[in-house]
């Protein structure tokens, strides 16, 4: 059995560490905010809900929720909640922990969706070092069945760690350079009144964001995933990736693809929601 949490479907995924402002106006989500405020007062916790992306712009109520939603999401932690005069709320959240949907619960009370989830752990140092060690065989002091003694094993571990650190540094530098080129290309398209680039960061915003993530590879990977004008499918795949090294490697390929589109034909992907019309009840 997993933990049951409130669910908030959106048109795009949320990533850990990324700020998400929301204006809450639907009655069911007004109820969600009131419930979270009561919980925060009683338990003295910030409160959170799960954000999951909707597949292909479908309205969740018009299809089975399990079919309408992607199965990997991210919690949104409440940072500030401001009641509005119309009964709604102005909310600022920040992405927290990743989770997988086990089941989607539809009830009359509460009126908003809930989900049973399992929490997803990041595969960081150990996994990435192991991934970078692929092919490191036949090294001095290593026999066919592995290192013959503790000294050789320690030496191999240090070599693997060194390779992993070097690989990560190369990835971070490469993705950072590609993202800077990408933002510049988007800015040039925006200067030509490209209507598809309204949600992309400006050069100044990009520079501030890059400075904020500093030398943190994980933060950089989530910044690129959330800021680049990628399709929902691409973003969802990046959210589902559990290792920073693999996520950055994928972003390197995606940014090269997007730069080719931007620099050759001046185009960015249009969200599928733009083409989604109302669904028939028949």
Rg calculated over all Cα atoms: 22 Å
Q: Describe the main β-sheet briefly.
A: 5 strands, mixed, barrel
Question: Residue ranges: pLDDT <50 for 5 or more in a row?
Answer: 129-146, 271-282
Report how far apart the termini are: 36 Å
Please count the beta strands (DSSP E, at least 2 residues each): 6
Instruction: Give the integer mean of the pLDDT values.
Output: 79
Element-by-element helix/strand order: EEHEHEEEHHHHHH
* Broad structural category: alpha+beta
Give the proportion of residues in helices.
Answer: 40-55%
Overall morphology = globular
The number of domains = 2
Q: How many H/I helical runs? A: 8
> What is the percentage of strand-forming residues?
15-25%
Short note summarizing the structure:
The protein is α+β, with helices and mostly antiparallel strands and 282 residues long.
Description of the structure:
- The protein is α+β, with helices and mostly antiparallel strands and 282 residues long.
- Helix 4 packs parallel to helix 8.
- The protein has a five-stranded mixed barrel with strand order 1-3-4-5-6.
- It folds into two domains: 3-119, LON domain-like (Archaeosine Trna-guanine Transglycosylase, Chain: A, domain 4, Roll), CATH 2.30.130; 125-265, no CATH class.
- The protein has eight helices and six strands; from the N terminus they run ββαβαβββαααααα.
- It is globular.
- It is 44% helix and 20% strand.
- Strand 4 and strand 5 form a beta hairpin.
- The two termini are 36 Å apart.
- It has helices spanning 27-43, 65-68, 125-132, 150-191, 203-213, 217-227, 232-240, 244-265, and strands at 3-10, 19-24, 48-53, 72-83, 89-105, 114-119.
- Residues 129-146 and 271-282 have low confidence and may be disordered.
